[in-house]
Specification:
globular; alpha/beta; Phosphonate transport system ATP-binding protein; membrane; cell membrane; ATP hydrolysis activity; AAA+_ATPase; binds adenosine-5'-triphosphate; Rossmann fold
Length: 294
């Protein structure tokens, strides 16, 4: 099947001009699609609480409520230990909530109560980019991207890399979009951090997600790759898929995001437009760390 991947890659590389400097933003129109209308409710979180320990200690997430709508590019900010990563893990079902409700759009079934099978289905639509990318180091880039279709492909077929032509074409298109097509046949373990991040985004989008969660996707990237990733996520959002991203840079939040949620000790203390973040709120969020965030 490797030959088929080769064929798809070769065909496309001859048809498009490759640039390492500017993502092919126009391709995103053909690459992403959602059934959402702008501002449609995609996720509703109600009174969510998470405690890692059964008794005594303050919960890591304490009675959190917010909605996410199509087209929103939302940053989650707060000092280290505020609960940002925990929130993403609870939202995508990889760790259980202690209390509260999470609804997929206007559906009435609470994700917190999902069975294992329902949770697998939910996790297929709630794509998450973790801090360590979770790529398979010894597999090539395009296969890593195709693994985003795992939930739709039988284990045996994916083991033998038997992905459909349609999936392969889409993987090529996504890699092209983030200028990673020239690396399509390279092993993931040989990529730079910025390149791995782009592959992780392509794999997440291969899932056809209804929601994209990203945990510090620009940590340890250089300025050029940082802006490339922030811009790419913004394009995902403007194509209707809401993006919730944990960030440490207030400057990036103000430059790219349409909304910011500030978390302190597991509670939301700000939810609004980035331009409404005042010094007072930043002081509440970061305390003594505030100067390090800018
Ligand atoms: N598996 C776990 N078991 C117990 N406590 C945990 C676990 N994971 C996280 N915590 C605790 O929960 C709190 C919130 O951690 P979390 O990683 O969600 O914070 P964060 O805001 O993402 O921090 P950072 O910005 O440093 O990534 C911390 O006090 C952390 O020690």
């Amino acid at each position: 099947m490797q030959n088929n991947s080769n064929l798809a890659v070769n065909t496309l590389t001859t048809e498009v001009s490759l640039s390492e400097t500017q993502p092919h933003l126009t391709l995103i129109e053909n690459t992403l699609s959602t059934d959402f209308t702008q501002n449609e409710l995609v996720l509703s979180v109600k009174n969510l609480t998470k405690s890692y320990h059964k008794t005594g200690e303050q919960p890591v997430l304490n009675n959190i409520s917010f909605d996410l709508h199509a087209g929103e590019y939302v940053a989650m900010i707060g000092r280290s230990g505020a609960g940002k990563s925990t929130l993403l893990h609870v939202l995508n079902g990889s760790i259980p909530a202690t209390k509260g409700e999470i609804y997929n759009g206007n559906e009435t079934q609470n994700i917190v109560n999902f069975s294992q099978k329902e949770m697998r289905r939910w996790r297929a639509t709630c794509a998450t980019i973790f801090q360590d990318f979770c790529l398979v180091p010894r597999l090539d880039v395009i296969t890593n991207v195709l693994l985003g279709r795992l939930s739709e492909t039988s284990t045996l077929k994916s083991f033998f890399k038997q992905f459909s032509d349609k999936d392969r074409a889409r993987a090529v298109e996504l890699l092209q979009w983030l200028n990673m097509l020239p690396h399509a046949l390279q092993r993931a373990e040989n990529l730079s951090g910025g390149q791995m991040q782009r592959v992780a985004i392509c794999r997440a989008l291969m899932q056809n997600p209804s929601l994209l969660l990203a945990d510090e996707p620009v940590a340890s990237l250089d300025p050029k790759n940082t802006h490339r990733i922030m811009q790419a996520l913004g394009n995902v959002a403007s194509n209707g898929i809401p993006v919730l991203v944990n960030l440490h840079s207030v400057e990036l939040v103000q430059q790219y995001c349409t909304r910011v949620i500030g978390l302190a000790k597991g509670e939301i203390i700000f939810d609004g437009h980035p331009s409404d973040l005042t010094q007072e709120i930043l002081n509440q969020l970061y305390g003594d760390e505030v100067s390090e965030t800018q």
